[in-house]
Design goal:
The chain is α/β, with parallel strands linked by helices and about 775 residues long. The chain has 28 helices and 14 strands. The radius of gyration is 26 Å and the shape is globular.
Length: about 775
Amino acid sequence: MKRVVMIDTQAYIHTETERVMDIRRRVRDAMEQPPSGGWKCPDRINDKYMSDPIPIRKARAIALKLSTMPTDLWDGQLFAGSMTLENPRVHAEWGFPTYITDSEREEGRKHGYDTGVFGHIVPDYPRLLEKGLMGIIADVEAQRDYIQNLAEEVFLDSVVIAAEGAIDFASRLAERCDAEADTCHDPFRTAELRKMAINMRQVPANPARTFWQALQSVWLLHMIFHSTMNGNAMGRVDQYVWPYLEADLESGRIDMDKAGELVDCFCLKFNERAKTTDEQKPESREDENIDPKSRTRHYTSSQLGTKRDRLDATNHWLQNIVVGGLTPEGEDGTNPLTYLLIESYRRNKMTNPLITVRVHEKSPDTLLYHTSEALKDGGGMPALFNDEAIIPALEGIGIPTPDARDYTNDGCWEVIIPGRTNFVFQRLSMMLCLEWALNSGYSRFDGIQHGPDTGDPRAFASFDDVWKAFRVQLDDMISRVVRRVVDTIDNRSILAPVPLLSALIDGAVESRRDMTAGGSKFRTFGMLAESASHAIDSMTAIKTVIFEEKQATMTELCNALDADFEGYEILRKKLLAAPKYGNDNNTADSVGRKLIESFIETVSRHAKEYESIVKFPCGVGTFSWYIGIGQGLGPSADGRLAGQPVASNFSPALGQDVEGIPSAILSYGKMHKYDLPAGGPLDLRLARHLVQEDEGTERMATLIRSFVDTGGNMMTLTVVDTEELRAAQRKPDNYRSLRVRMGGWCAYFTMLSKEQQDHHIRRQEARS
């Protein structure tokens, strides 16, 4: 298969190789195979080590697992190291040796911390490629002269143990490559295996010397992190790997055909662990018993239930790659590798790696063209990030300009600085705050008082009264979160230090502290406003219907909410007819901007005294949990019924953006004044017939330019037809590669729950 790819201003004909097509087919077929066993992770580290400090034990657990992980190669692959094997189908990424005692675990749970997966971080892969793990170990040893206490010595020891475990694993892989070469009867493949062995002996222990080695080093550390409870993203691959490809091209060691094949093989590695097995299929799902009094994720979120969302997210592991955008020096960073990565994603038609394109005022037209072509194939990828909005927002919270220009995301879409940031986040429900304000602090869903008593809402005489009650609820929620974060900020380091990840986080080795104990250059805690669109619409409806137009009283509104609008259908119609966010309507958008400003101001006020400890960047998000979030909410003043899903991230409510996509983008742009550095995507959908042929591609590219110009910070575009989704429900076997955007990632449509599938169809119908 051939395809024209623009490299700078020149057309390059990329020829897809038989190897790539074969591996892609086998990866896709393997997804449908159930695990066959054959490998068991060690249960625990040796008892003789259980008296060591916990960071040492954690490092030994990492080394132990790596010493026993299988070294099997996927036939024909150019990269060694696999979390999941092809034949037999073995998931070696599963499991991790126990390294703490039962009493330690129990004590940790009493205080709210455990040893779970640590994700949402981007390691310092440029440092890995430049120094190798041996160079990092040398940096560790150089710090021993400055040790001030036992904790610092323990940390440095833990980094060395974990790094040496990774180096030993690479040596085992090199031996496996040589062993397969010894028995291979194909001279061409034998030479490849010998080269792979050479690569594994060079990296990741030592600096990468070639493009192939750079990709191999990054992949191996990525799979090691994901196999040892660190689900991390990849960051700006096209920026830190391009110098190696550029040097290879200039020296003649490689040509673009070989580079393209290496990129394709690299991207396919991220899908080896994917599953599309029977338990995920909608007809195999069992109903979940949901406890309305039990929040299942963030205690400030309305989300209920876990089983459906967990299965829907089977193939999501935060494996995000970011391409394009400005360099730290302020130049456009688009390069040939940018295009190769976008093109590989487009051809593979798989869900991993996730890909995001950073755009700005001077992004090349060719970049927007290739991005649009990839978007036309569906899946809602690449996501689009606007440098013109995000960089100033990061500068606004004190991130130096070169670092701000180098931003990436954490695996979904939350913004972080790669290799320099310890990042955590929490969702804070705007709709819960409003629900409590309209019910004296009580939830209409579970009948429990969650917020302060802000008075009888039936007695509110003005919109300002409603607003003040909402602000009290918001202030109380935010203050509790900030206080808890500050009080527990180092707790994770007690049971779940990350010695290997800390080795690749700027500041940790230099300060001789684990990343979880404050060793990173930046520490940020994202405060994400949940269900913001419905809060905007509800506030707008109260303002216009109740107080300006006086079509109903607060008593009637509260009674209607108590009854979930049963018997109040006329009032509900009036509320639904009120101005809505997403239509470039100044009434709704001004309320929206006031709400976002209030959220940001409240966070800033409570966080200010702790800014030397942790930064609290604001954002707006639901991720893919919009159904569960809606299930935990009572009815709302925008006309939404109890339990109905909420809008995705910062998108307009379902079916309410009636003025079309341009108006939705304009409304969204009004919500930003460089003050949402954590992000907040506008998730939009397009019908395929609108983007057909070159004219459709140009139309999408123009839309992306408009998004940049209007000041929004993130946008996703999913291209699919309603009938295509319905057909996939009827005949799923014919639509194995159909993907849809899920709030921060993409999923195979036929592997989603019936509720999610129906929701996507309704969203597409509203857009079509």
